[in-house]
Amino acid sequence: MRKHYTGLLLLLAATGLAHGDPAPLATSEGDYVARDFHFANGATLPELRLHYTTLGRPQRDAGGHVLNAVLLLHGTGGDGHQFLRPQFAGELFGPGQPLDVAKYYVILPDGIGHGRSAKPSDGAHARFPEYAYADMVAAQHQLLTAGLGVDHLRLLLGTSMGCMHGFLWGERYGGFMDALMPLACLPVQIAGRNRIWRRMLIEAIRDDPAWSGGDYREQPRNALRTASDLLLLAGSAPLPMQAAYPTRDAADRRVAEYTTASLATLDANDLLYQVSASRDYDPSAGLEDIVAQTVWINSADDFINPPELGIAEAQAKRLRHGRFVLLPGGEHGHGHGTHTWAAVWKPELVALLAASERPVR
To answer: Is the pTM for the entire model greater than 0.90?
Structure first.
């Protein structure tokens, strides 16, 4: 396992703690290599690199068990660094805040296919194993237990794809965590409009001749333009978008700016794999197996998980120790992205931590 240490300036800027504010935060980063990793579809990799970022230090009891670990799981196309942005870290990680890193050991992994973890664009292209969410969760578990020596979590919080991973964690590793907070997802198979826009994105990439079966030398730009358009819509909410872009010219500029930024950063194979990884997700059969105290939160203006489906309210009744919270939308909402605006749901996190607190072992 290799570790890398960052300076303070990047994180200070991200959390808004620069310019003389107290209690600067520091991160450490590392790579854990899982040897002979077996994927659910039968593929194997002799070495699977898993990158991670941590804040704070682990506290262990007399038996060596970590008492204060918090695992934060990112969304599709993201990485652990997304949790260092001001709207998240600035609300949660500072002194006296709910996940004060002087008290908690916060772990931010990059999922398989994301960030600085192993992914198709490292060189294997479309020969990289077709990972699924089950593989990503198994790798996260191995990173914690074998890589970081963590056998218990005080909290697991996941956003979007990380929300879906959270439900899988709760079912497969039931006693591993005290508290579970899934944000912005549904614990059922991906179907309806959610499946359709994902399928459209996948087919846009695969059907572009420039994709060349995944062995392109230059990015298939037409495919990525379509993918960018779909991603923009999927993350949008009507009222704030109308307020932000109230004229034709403003809306057109937004499309152009978003497309330019996307084409500069997206890799077609990485994106294809990231979206396709949800293909067999369906934890609905095991919701009763989740024993952790759970607060599950969605937002009313979420394009990807629209509340009018009624799925969340029905499935939440099956949680043994959990409840569902629907946040209101509105002009100042953030759509699907509400999951990373911690100020909106921070009180629910505080309540969950209090309700799930256990005596020191």
So the answer is: yes
